[in-house]
Here is the input.
Amino acid sequence: MANLKINAMGLEFKNPVLSASGTYGFGEEFSEIYDVSILGGICSKGLTLNGRSGNTGVRLWETPMGLMNSIGLQNPGVDSFIKDELPRMKSYNTIIAANLGGHCDEDYYEGIYKLNETDVDLIELNISCPNVKSGGMAYGIKSAVAYEIVSKLRKICKKPLMVKLSPNAENISEMSIACEAAGADGISLINTIQALAIDIKKRKAVFDNIYAGLSGPCVKPIALRMVRDAAKSVKIPVCGLGGIMSAEDAVEFIMAGATLVQIGTGNFIKPDIAVEIINGLSEYMDKEGIKSLDEIRGII
Amino acid sequence: MKVVKSKIIDNIKILNKIYRLTCEFAGDIRPGQFFMLKTLDNSFLLPRPISVHDSSENTVTFLYRTEGKGTSKISTLREDDEIQLFGPLGNGFALDNLSGKIAVVGGGIGIAPLLYLVKSLGKNADVFLGFKDAENAYLIDEFKKYADRTIVVTEDGSIGEKGFVTDYICYKEYSTVLTCGPEIMMNKIIKNSMENNVKCYISLERRMACGMGVCLGCTVETKSGNKRACKDGPVFSSDELV
Here is the structure.
């Protein structure tokens, strides 16, 4: 059987397949469907220092092969995550990443200080949520702004730091280089693409926030291009995501340069899709005579 | 809850845009629970939340109205075709907490989850069914088999009583009202139940992506904060709602 193990960011992943933040809660619901310890890792729902009740109005909208969301980082807050969710997540025997967002520098500092004292394996720094008005994505548009916050956080963060990038960044290569230079251990991309839906009967935007984030199979070609741009620009590992629905999709991301991949919207379409993708990757490697994913990584 | 590829036993058009789909499924299901349904092709992306209309040892039945791309595609499936089922999901009606006489009130396609509920209540429930007119009324005889009394109300009086179903419920006769249907109907029932000091549980419909409590898209505002229609509901006590 193929060896799917990945060493990245000072951590050993059983395989390159992680669940994406915001599509997997804190793992509990999925653990009722399958053994979640088979995953390479789990990224928590996006956390903020204090809990948030999220956005008003419509939160979901289906598009042809896509899903728009405007949840607005509804989450219980870092303290509640550490107390109520993390101990159970750690029992899943896989890499646990805390996805941390913020409205201002202080929010990120406080969040990191608290997470430093836990046994969370990895921090995925969210500088890319398009659905929170004050901040969130504001850090993820200009490389210089991202460099500044990541540098500051790198100095205080005791955990491996993976920065989640926005496809709305001005220049994805420069953004990746800035994060690497600031000391990030890895980068993950893409977060959702800022998008618009209009209800012509009401003559209004569907979402209260006007714009929302687009994900799903329709964004995959864009995500692949950006993952390739990022991977060609930096030496740190790139975690690719955006519309992965099959092992073949995951292989495309690896060929584009990804060391790890995340499953997001796919978790909604077929709740046990991660099992299928992990098994499918192994079968693909056996069939193609591939001993290590290094053989095909970044070949495009 | 589990994800299965299930074989379709039949998928029959009952009336206009209303279909009844029966699939193979083994497992316990509570009245008021639902499944996420998806065709195996990629003609649409998100599975569709559909409530359980009936259930037997090895089957589950859904009653649905073709509203958009998803349900229209599902309506084209035939015997022996396969469909992806994920469920059962949600809390369902808490039957253990019920005592006394029950009123079950449904309007339009909201009657879908009520047949299995009424069957489970024995002859302890009176059923109130509201339809637009005789042409758009369905499954009345099915309900009559299991309910104590079945009261049908149409807007034009072409079958049963004339007016709105909410006008024909004598709240004082009941300990609890269980309902599913248009929001305007359920809001009236909540108001009247509270005035008459009768317990009221309502089954809500929301746009959903995951159906299992992780995407946080199907928010219901309650007195104790945001709840998830898919996981904490779809059945809520009217006291909880804002």
